[in-house]
Amino acid sequence: MYISNIQINNYGPITDLSLDFPFNGQNPKPVLLVGQNGAGKSLFLANIINALITGRQDEYDDNEVEQGRVYKYRMPSYISSGKSYSYIKVQFQSGAKVEELQLTNKKSAVNPPDANYAGLDIYQIMPPEETSAFSASFSQHPGTTDSLFKKQCCLYFPVHRNEEPAWLNIENATRRANFTKLKNISRQSNRDFVVSSPLESNRNWMLDLALDRSLYETQINNIILPNGQPGQGITLPIFGGYIGESSAVFQTIQKLIRIIMRQGENVRLGLGGRKSRQITIMKDEIEWIPNIFQLSTGETQLLNFFLTIIKDFDLSEASFVDMSNVKGIVVIDEIDTHLHTTQQMNVLPELIASFPKVQFIITTHSPLFLLGLKQKLGADGFHAVQMPQGSPVAVEEFSEFGDAYEAFIQTERHKEEINTRIEESQKPLLYVEGDYDIRYLKTAAKLLNREALLDMLRIEDGNGFGNLDKIWRGYENPTNSVLPQKLILLYDCDTKKSDVDKGQVYKRTMPVQLENPIAIGIENLFPEKTILTLEETNPQFIDFQPAVSKRVRNTTVETPAIRSVNKDEKGNMCNWICEHGTKEDFNNFDKIFDLLEEILKSN
């Protein structure tokens, strides 16, 4: 049983919204509400929650709201500015609906009534001296609440959810898991609908699962071994694993943990002994996380969402098989709160996709989450709604965020690789723009007797100034520039970068030699005599554009001759100079060595 439609008129910023909830065959598509703060996303959810709690009151007594009360206030102040009424209707697949009508004045004071609501049944039942009316038709559609709450999960995660970390509340680090106490009484659900801090109850429920699995689902296979006597043998009991519903739930939790932690089969849940009964996470059969309260905030949020979904379905009257058969309605306000970009883009979409029979109704501010869902479910696999209009959102509108995310990930990977190289090396790391720069520097050091200085550095090819820029951006946060060794980024003179220091990270540009004929690249360091010699012996290395004289508005303008290294001959030119070059050819490289020496000597 799912929600089929919601209609909202003149409620806060929402003036005219009607949404048919989409389905893929029998399975509901996730619905994502996006929009600026104040666009009505939480108001939209409040009406969904109000309808579900009203239905839950028909089935259970242990509700968050007393029988006959409502979750959401009705008041004239929520009527859209300039309007005389607000109307809301939430409809379910069975035909059951929850309606409310709010007027700015008493019914008796409005004559004639607005034609937009005068024909509504709910208006007819409104008392003359009242300004509002509320109606629910669950009783007219038998089986609706039974299907909604007894045979599927039904949950709401408000935006104010939180868990106290182990470092803040010592009880979380030392308190043992306890077995759950369930009341097997008519009209008692033993389940929460509004969920803010479920980790402790989830932990206790996992202990119940482990106990049930051990007591009732242990499989023992008896093997008869011969003892040498004809027709006789020794019966040897062999553990054959666990089979049963509790085991299926427990295995599903293991899978959930692996998705959240982005780990493989080497990660599993662990259970401490009776003297310190903690739920732990094991990796390679070694305790990895001693207490689930020690998970990061983002990991805890994800675990709470989806572990609670599994638990709520398990405590219902439905039979559990795996994640794909979990059915229900789950409402989450600001789902991306506390989640890292990787969790928004990759982990959360994978978890949503793992529950195809759950009707997710979600608010989000994260375009990365939408892009991740598109990659996982396809553009037609979910429905994004722009609030307050209620119009569909094309995920392509956020494609630039995907490009930015990929650039961020590449930068992070590049930074991790650099950090690894720094840690592996006992030397400061020098990045230059290309392989030819490395060869020129090594030849110059040999000819100029600066090899001792260059031996103090590990030199790496940065593959162009663009990649050096990425490295620099990766260390923009001051805390990221706290490195065990210095990192130097050496740009060619034509990039015109400013010299900047960030902690242990140094950005430097080769000093430009204005008098030399080659204007760009490391070749700018070679004097005119060297270039002219090259031009004479290997003219293919140097491209030449003669000086040009032209008259502009009766004034003669002289453009000097231009020499440049042929891009296809850069490697050959490097080979020739490194083989035949002299100290005089490489004299200007001393300026680079002085620059590097100054950095190495600095504190």
UniProtKB/TrEMBL annotation:
Signal peptide: none annotated. GO terms for biological process: double-strand break repair. SUPFAM superfamilies: P-loop containing nucleoside triphosphate hydrolases. GO terms for molecular function: ATP binding; ATP hydrolysis activity. InterPro entries: ATPase_AAA_core, Bact_Antivir_Def_Nuclease, P-loop_NTPase, Rad50/SbcC_AAA. Residues 291-370 form the ATPase AAA-type core domain. PANTHER family: ATP/GTP PHOSPHATASE, EXCINUCLEASE ATPASE SUBUNIT. This is AAA+ ATPase domain-containing protein. It comes from Pseudomonas putida.
